Amino acid sequence: MTKSVDQNSPVAPMLDRRDERVKHAQGIGGAVSAFLDRIRSGDLGSLPVVVGLVIIWTVFQSLNPVFLAPNNLVNLLFDCSTVGVIALGVVCILIVGEIDLSVGSVSGFASALVGVLWVNQGWPVAVAIIAALAFGALIGAIYAFLFNRFGMPSFVSTLAGLLSILGLQLYLLGSTGSINLPYDSPLVNFGQMLVMPDVVAYVLAALPGIVFFVLEFRTAARRRQAGLSSPFLGSLLLRAVFVTVVLEFIVYYLNLDRGIPWMFGLFVGLVVAMNYALTRTKWGRSMIAVGGNREAARRAGINVRYIYTTAFMLCSALAATGGILSAARLASASQQAGTGDVNLNAIAAAVIGGTSLFGGRGSAYSALLGIIVIQSIASGLTLLDLSSSLRYMITGAVLAIAVIVDSLARRSRVSHGRA
Amino acid sequence: MTKSVDQNSPVAPMLDRRDERVKHAQGIGGAVSAFLDRIRSGDLGSLPVVVGLVIIWTVFQSLNPVFLAPNNLVNLLFDCSTVGVIALGVVCILIVGEIDLSVGSVSGFASALVGVLWVNQGWPVAVAIIAALAFGALIGAIYAFLFNRFGMPSFVSTLAGLLSILGLQLYLLGSTGSINLPYDSPLVNFGQMLVMPDVVAYVLAALPGIVFFVLEFRTAARRRQAGLSSPFLGSLLLRAVFVTVVLEFIVYYLNLDRGIPWMFGLFVGLVVAMNYALTRTKWGRSMIAVGGNREAARRAGINVRYIYTTAFMLCSALAATGGILSAARLASASQQAGTGDVNLNAIAAAVIGGTSLFGGRGSAYSALLGIIVIQSIASGLTLLDLSSSLRYMITGAVLAIAVIVDSLARRSRVSHGRA
Amino acid sequence: QNAKVSNATVAFLMPDQASTRYEEHDYPGFKAEMEKLCPTCKVLYQNADANVSRQQQQFNSAISQGAKVIVIDPVDSAAAASLVKQAQSQGIKVIAYDRPVPDAKADFYVSFDNEAIGKAIADSLVQHLKASNVTAASGTGVLQINGSPTDAAAGLIKKGIHAGLDSSGYPILAEFDTPEWAPPKAQQWASGQITRFGKNILGVVAANDGTAGGAIAAFKAAGVNPVPTVTGNDATIAALQLIIAGDQYNTISKPSEIVAAAAANVAIQFLMGETPKAETTLFNTSSRLFVPAVITAQNLKAEIIDKKINTAEQLCGGRYAEGCKKLGIN
Amino acid sequence: MTNTNQQQSDGRERVLSLRGISKNFGAVSALTDIDLDVHTGEVVALVGDNGAGKSTLVKILAGVHQPSSGSITFRGNPVTLDDPSAALRLGIATVFQDLALCENLDVVANIFLGKELSPFRLDEVSMEVKAWTLLNELSARIPSVREPVASLSGGQRQTVAIARSLLLEPKLILLDEPTAALGVAQTAEVLDLIERVRDRGLGVIMISHNMEDVRAVADRIVVLRLGRNNGVFDPDASNQELVSAITGASNNSVSRRASRRQAQNVQAQAPQGQAPEARR
Amino acid sequence: MTNTNQQQSDGRERVLSLRGISKNFGAVSALTDIDLDVHTGEVVALVGDNGAGKSTLVKILAGVHQPSSGSITFRGNPVTLDDPSAALRLGIATVFQDLALCENLDVVANIFLGKELSPFRLDEVSMEVKAWTLLNELSARIPSVREPVASLSGGQRQTVAIARSLLLEPKLILLDEPTAALGVAQTAEVLDLIERVRDRGLGVIMISHNMEDVRAVADRIVVLRLGRNNGVFDPDASNQELVSAITGASNNSVSRRASRRQAQNVQAQAPQGQAPEARR
Ligand SMILES: Nc1ncnc2c1ncn2[C@@H]1O[C@H](COP(=O)(O)OP(=O)(O)OP(=O)(O)O)[C@@H](O)[C@H]1O
Ligand SMILES: Nc1ncnc2c1ncn2[C@@H]1O[C@H](COP(=O)(O)OP(=O)(O)OP(=O)(O)O)[C@@H](O)[C@H]1O
Ligand SMILES: [Mg+2]
Ligand SMILES: [Mg+2]
Questions:
Q1: Residue-averaged pLDDT of chain B
Q2: CA pair distance A108, A113, nearest whole angstrom
Q3: Region Disordered: start and end of each range (chains D, E) (predicted)?
Q4: Closest approach of chain C CAs to the CA of B339, in angstroms?
Q5: CATH for B116
Q6: Co-location of A245 and A270 in the same domain
Q7: Residues A151 and A199 reside in one and the same domain
Q8: Neighbours of chain D (3+ CB pairs under 8 A)
Q9: What is the pLDDT of residues D183-204, one digit of tens each?
Q10: Lowest mean pLDDT among A76-90, B244-258, C302-316, D63-77
């Protein structure tokens, strides 16, 4: 195996397999041992968070068997979707290394705006929603302007935004107080009741595995053609089957009760779209580059200002979306909407899921994972009869425990020289 | 001026003046033109924030002439001191590039602890205070442990702390609700009334100028002896006189009313001490190094874990101090203490004053400046009769305006190639 | 008579932590009455910490756990309408507690009236001012400190205070919505108003005891002696002590245990399939209202000590002993 | 010191021409009145002491910094380069001394940063193949192009930075100490590469502290000293001439060291009859 | 290939001795079974291709990375270096390839980082004087030592990093490509410095890609290839020998380039009678 890199050597190894110092996995056994290797060196992606989640679930289930009851899990999915969409926006802005403290206010204002325009002013609901989304995007554009033009730190500009928009929200609802959304409207139905028909849920749950397999299969073929190494087909198939089985089981279990909420479907759809945009488009690549090293990205010819603008606008627009969803969920546009811990929960979800506060590292899935962790804790504690003081203490402790697994894994990654 | 660096050239220029490309200021004229140069290139330290402050003050004064009345300013100083001390702790933790979201909770819990131990349990007040401070330091030590040992991101661990400690606070005050601190006790007196005697205030206001001049004079002498350039004496004197005149005027003006609160004196004392520690000790140097480049600091032999531990502990302990001060100011330990916007205000004060959220850049004075900006806005709006919705909107807008000046200055610094 | 009800689950959902009453009085009162009436029944207790979404979550989980009756003190009265409808569609009875749900017809409503509380403290203040012959000269007036601008209950109290003050002849010099009910904010605001209006402040109507304490601290810090008349609400120990010490004028005592017990009774009746008797009808809902008591130094002994809401030991420690003696408490 | 400016420009188009470029950083004048010309098919070496302002000049040409004064003419038109993307659009590719890589991205992503294939559905396979091809051309030994750049060795990173600049079809290539961290083999490949690029008619500005490399590929050697032009030399100028121009004195540490070593060699090796070689 | 290990150790104390050091990064074996000895008053040059593992080895000795296996003996005692401060305490000073400076601190603060004078009341004047002295010794041209390191040129930074390592009184100095970014004058100073340090009886490990510099100061040349020992050479080994050991083939880009240039020179310069010099 000491071949030189000469082009004319008789059996040139694959382009990316010429370095003899690298161990490569062969076949299924190799894949397993590579996986074990990765566990040992702590290079695990989001597995540790999942492990933390499983621990939390086990504990809560043993404390109150209602916790894993399908009914409760369906509620959990409804609750995840609203803040989850906001967290997805936060992921965007964290990836470029900035922050948005006003997501809570924006979501609250968006719900108020929908309430006022739709219920009070009688606009068509779709137009009201579009207006709210446009408002969200506009807010983001203002932050981006302040950031690009004046270099105002996003912490300060969005703090100012938090206050101003909360003021706007109070102003808008000032004369009426909270506005109830019609209980029988499609929007509220969507936020409270609408679940997928069983068949649709089963079909959708089969999609990821199939799409994954087909795409990876085609990529593998192209890689082989191009002289690159390609993953072992068996392991691809194994993974696809595994994913499908798990998802189908979840669907089956939840279908025992109401089934999968369409709202959760929307959230997951947004996550998948965002993941595609971040990992498979030039724009996403630029986002991660800007977050990792702004100056290097600028020197590579990336329009850094444009990237920041899109990040801020996406974040605010998604926050507005989340606000509309929570109004739908609550069937009301209230003065409290978006206040309290919405901000912290959204940011914490992104961070717990593995997105870095310092930019350049993160994934759309961290919003999904993080919000499930947070809402699981909240839901689990709701099932125990605790005084508020105990509930706060236990929430904090459980949060720490959920993240400790991930931190330990990352720590081991660092001690193995992999940052 | 094309001398080589040879030791034996007849009139060797000063050690630090051998590079002919650098312009140096000579005499007072030179100092002035250097200052103008700095303005043009945006290298202004905290001047822009001061300018922003002056703008805010002018506007508020024109809206309500009570604003700059000595009485109101004395109130302002009282109010600055409590959150200011917390912000000082936040500066510490931001400098090493971490964050503490639990300063509010810690401050609230510390005030509750003092209330319970002192008023309800009858401990001597000093012992109760020491217990609260020790508790604060302990919390910081726990964060540091989680950070150093498990690598848990401080955002998550302190978020968990925020919740847990809030729970503790509610638990502690659960049966009684708020606890009144005796109005005639020295602690409440300190927080509400105690001001410096006029003479003491005048003397203390003279100190900075004198100390500055004496120290700089001696340093200048040592520098001259060592063959280094030294600042022009006249400009030193000018600056000392300027500082003294400004401070003495402030004291004179505030003495027209009650005078300078001792509590503010304590706050400024802590700021000065922290500034000394950060700029003139090995520990402070290590803090800034760790914040700027953790790995480089580690390779320089700095005990990085120790530095993080001190930073976390200082931050929590100062938060506890701030909590005790606000209990003294309110004459009550309440369940709401430390909730609401205490956290955001403390962090925002540090950031507005110029401390970076990303570590490695910051100064103790940023806590002082930042909190004055924030409290000025709050105080100014208090004097105008506004609905809460308007108040929120205007707070946000004024905050943005106050920071825009600073951002512009920093921007110009960047565009002049100085990061 | 209760043999018919056993092993049922009842949820008791409270809104916030702005005062300690929910955990110190309402819940213990409710639980005690339930235990008396149905020892095998399970009571689920939750506090939403002033968070609408959290209350919704708690409401859903109560349903998941099989609650047949839900007693809810809504964080947001308007928003609770959907919860009520949702529960009723599953055959679950909802008792609105403390705050009404105007937009949906709950099965029962048990409360004191927050608006009435606001009006009561304002009226009490006005009467006191008039009794002490304080005239509203030009430029003088009272300050109004409301609760959190995002809190619906605070809005009701605010409305009541306005109703009480508007016709009183004492103008409102300035008013303030205290974010998060935070006493330090109330203190800072009051300090500013003291600078502005000085001796022209005749009194302060504060919406709860915490903000009242903040206002009193502001007067003390400004060296104003004696402190003008300051009202409160909730009858916290701290406030009662301030009343004993003469710094605060009044507060509102809500016999929460009694109201909670009434709610428990109604719940049991629902569980037995009976229709509880209504005293009045409010918001189209069968209701039972309780009248809160305004506590001042004069009736503190009678309303608090004698009704065993608090004990003398709780109130009269240390510095308050002398004041207690003056009021005849020992 | 021969001014070869005139001679070389015969018949060749001028790609770049700088006149009176100055740049101040606060109180420091990093560049003062710099003039420089580059023609098609010409390799101009920019040499000078540490801190002479070479990188500052390159950064100005790459649009990273804006000059305080002076004018830039590119292919006959006056231009202002107020952004790196402006320079890239004109066809100026740069390898920066500090490399300017995104440490959190992998090798392929860094090489293609800003010029990804099929922007809405990144073509990772083609990009990876192209990356390997470029890297192999440069004799780089990189274990995996799917690891973040943070895990690469210094020389591997530099190779990645060089590979990046080859992706474009530039008119002018700026190389700021491209071989500083490279091994002997990789250095040879880069020098070959520079010659190939020149033969394709591009202009090249190369900065290096290695006089041997400079003389091997440069058509003209421009010396900067303390931010000013300090002469233009032919590649066959003697080492001593160049070093004097760079350090500003004929008695410098290089010449001192050379003469000291020479003396030692004479003492030590005279018996072995080896002729002492003057290396000043 | 002469194993000069035995010969040189005569009479000299061994400062450092590595046996069987390996280091894996995930699936990559960066080092495999490395043996190395350094004696007092000896300069060992560590050479190898890009990515050969030289810096990894230095980082292990500096306590930055922990080896996956193998033993380290320092001045006769087995040691474990689980932290850079452990290495510093033993007297191992390191100049890292990536310099490891704090960009937000000024030059003086960087030079004295971790070893400030009078920790409770920093003696800025003495530190500044000492900093200037060190920098002048290295012929550095730095406009101001009170500017953050971020504003320095590449070579200036490297000088700062070298100055740092001189502050301690080390027993062993590790220099990872110390002259990569330095100008000709500064390089000469650093080579002088290395010789002075050696004469004071310290052990030195120097990494460099410049064979000329290596031969000028090294007492022994250790070659790494793909993370393994690949021979030990005398400084008078021929360039070709060294390059073959480094690249692992006698037909490599360096030799190809040399022969190509030779051919060109013969063509072009034969009329001028200049003897073509074989530089392989
Ligand atoms: N951003 C900046 N702020 C302040 N001074 C700077 C900045 N960039 C460069 N300088 C100064 O300008 C001078 C020239 O720096 P430059 O990087 O151009 O040198 P160089 O010729 O590339 O040196 P080297 O050979 O060491 O790379 C240096 O003295 C440096 O301190
Ligand atoms: N932290 C790390 N994680 C993963 N791989 C690493 C890490 N550090 C080094 N490597 C790998 O180890 C190998 C050796 O790297 P090293 O930096 O020691 O090379 P080097 O000999 O110093 O090369 P150069 O001459 O380019 O500086 C490289 O292939 C590199 O990719
Ligand atoms: Mg340079
Ligand atoms: Mg290296």
A1: 88
A2: 9
A3: 249-280
A4: 8
A5: 1.10.3470
A6: no
A7: no
A8: A, B, E
A9: 999 999 999 999 999 999 999 9
A10: C302-316
Question: Residue B67 has what pLDDT?
Answer: 92
Over pLDDT 90: what percentage of chain B? 65
D4: pLDDT strictly greater than 50: no
Please indicate, yes or no, if residue A338 is contained in any of the structural domains. Answer: yes
Quick one: pLDDT at residue B340? Answer: 80
Atom of ligand 2 nearest to the CA of D158: 26
C222 contact residues in B (CB cutoff 8 A):
71, 75
Question: What are the two backbone dihedrals, phi and then psi, of residue E228, each rounded to the nearest 5 degrees?
Answer: -125, 155
The confidence band for A416, taking pLDDT boundaries of 50, 70 and 90, is low
Residue A415 has pLDDT above 70, yes or no: no
This prediction has a pTM of 0.93
Domain that holds residue B342: 48-194+261-406
Distance CA A56, CA A49 (A): 11
Residue B199 and residue B249 in one domain: yes
Amino acid at A409: A
Residues A325 and A283 occupy one common structural domain: yes
- Ligand 1 atom 22: the closest Cα is on which residue? D55
**Adjacent-strand bridge partners of C47:** C14
Please name the fold of domain E14-102+170-262: Rossmann fold (3.40.50)
Give pLDDT tens digits for E17-54: 999 999 988 788 999 999 999 999 999 999 999 999 99
**E172 Cα to chain D: minimum distance (Å):** 23
Check residues B4 and B28 and name the one with the higher pLDDT.
B28
- The closest alpha carbon to E23, from E72, E60, E67, belongs to E67
Residue A26 has pLDDT above 80, yes or no: no
Answer whether the bond into residue C226 is a cis peptide, omega within 30°: yes
Question: What is the mean pLDDT of the segment spanning E136-144?
Answer: 88
Task: Tell me how crowded residue C281 is: count the other CB atoms within 10 A of its CB.
Answer: 10
Does B9 fall in a domain?
A: no
Same domain flag for A374 and A354: yes
Helix (H, G, I), strand (E, B) or coil at E153: coil
Smallest-distance ligand from the CA of E97:
4
Residue range E70-102, pLDDT digits in tens: 999 999 999 999 999 999 999 999 999 999 999
Q: Do A21 and E30 touch (CB under 8 A)?
A: yes
Res A39: pLDDT:
66
pLDDT of the residue at E273:
43
pLDDT at C201: 94
Q: Does residue A37 lie in a domain region?
A: no
Complex ipTM above 0.95? no
Residue C168 touches chain A, beta carbons under 8 Å: no
Owner of token pair 């480089």:
B296
In a domain, residue B34? The reply is no
Residue C217 with chain B: CB contacts under 8 Å: 192, 329-332
The C-alpha atoms of residue A284 and residue B142 are separated, in whole angstroms, by 38
Residues B272, B367 within the same domain: yes
Task: Confirm or reject contact between E88 and chain B (CB < 8 A).
Answer: yes
Q: Which of E23, E31, E47, E56 to mutate to test the pocket of ligand 2 (most atoms within 8 A of CB)?
A: E56
> Structurally, how many domains does chain A consist of?
2
Question: Residue E5 pLDDT > 80, yes or no?
Answer: no
> Which of A335, A343, A384, A386 has the highest number of chain C CBs within 10 A, making it the mutation to test binding with C?
A335
Q: Which of A253, A274, A295 is the last residue of a domain?
A: A253
Return all residues near B269 (Cβ < 8 A) that are at least 6 apart: none
